[in-house]
Amino acid sequence: MSHKVEDFSQAFYPFLHEDRKAPKELLAGLRFSLLEKARDSAQTKIAFFEENQQLILQASLTLARAFQQGQKLLVCGNGGSATDAQHVAVEFMHPITVGRRALPCICLTNDMAMVTAVANDIGFDDIFVRQIIALGQPGDVLLAISTSGNSPNLIRAFETARRMQIVTLAFSGDDGGKLAGSSERLVDFCFTVPTSSVHRIQETHVALYHILWDLVHEFLQHPTTLEAMELDIQQK
User: Fold this and answer.
1) Model confidence band, residue 25 (pLDDT cutoffs 50, 70, 90)
2) Fold for domain 52-235?
3) Of 107, 112, 196, 206, which sits with the fewest C-beta atoms within 10 Å of its C-beta?
């Protein structure tokens, strides 16, 4: 067990590192632990949004501008981040808030026939590349979600998007990995949640894409003032 994992376990599950306790004591430990995790989750999100509010506004405005010009959003990720990518697509394509319109968004993890065909014939690192080439257009936006920022297939996806003049957004965690540290600037907007806890990273990502969705619609509801708002955001 790594030191980071051990420290996390000691902080949130101290009762697992002590002698066996009676049921009441164990339950008390569990109650304390769940409240500590909830507090940590809230504090992680608050700190992240305070640090990144300007970048979030800029990314939201960029995405709103793309939709206004008839472009679309492509989303991808692996594992739990793949389900987040699906969630993003549903939010944009099927808004449940009255007065919000459907916006074109394609989740690249949904087509299992395509994903497995490319993985089998070429390699797993290219599962998103072929879809971006086929579906993407200059001015579209690619959002990739990764808790580590080191997924080779996402890096290849961003390299392809960059060549195609597609705007790029990344949701990452910890130190941002290769997505945040690339000298080639693969990502236009990189949002990194600075914690080693995958759960806290994923929880913050969910809040981030919900807020991003909401801001995009707010900007789209004021189309005549987009340019003024863009200038104001850039100056701050």
Assistant:
1) confident
2) Rossmann fold (3.40.50)
3) 112
What average pLDDT does this structure show over 25-39? 86
The C-alpha angle 47, 149, 174, rounded to 5 degrees, equals 35
Delimit the domains of the chain by residue range. 52-235
Please state the three-class secondary structure of the chain as a single string: CCHHHHHHHHHHCHHHHCCCCCHHHHHHHHHHHHHHHHHHHHHHHHHHHHHHHHHHHHHHHHHHHHHHCCCCEEEEECCHHHHHHHHHHHHHHCCCCCCCCCCCEEECCCCHHHHHHHHHHCCHHHCCHHHHHHHCCCCCEEEEECCCCCCHHHHHHHHHHHHCCCEEEEEEECCCHHHHHCCCCCCCEEEEECCCCHHHHHHHHHHHHHHHHHHHHHHHCCHHHHHHHHHHHHHC
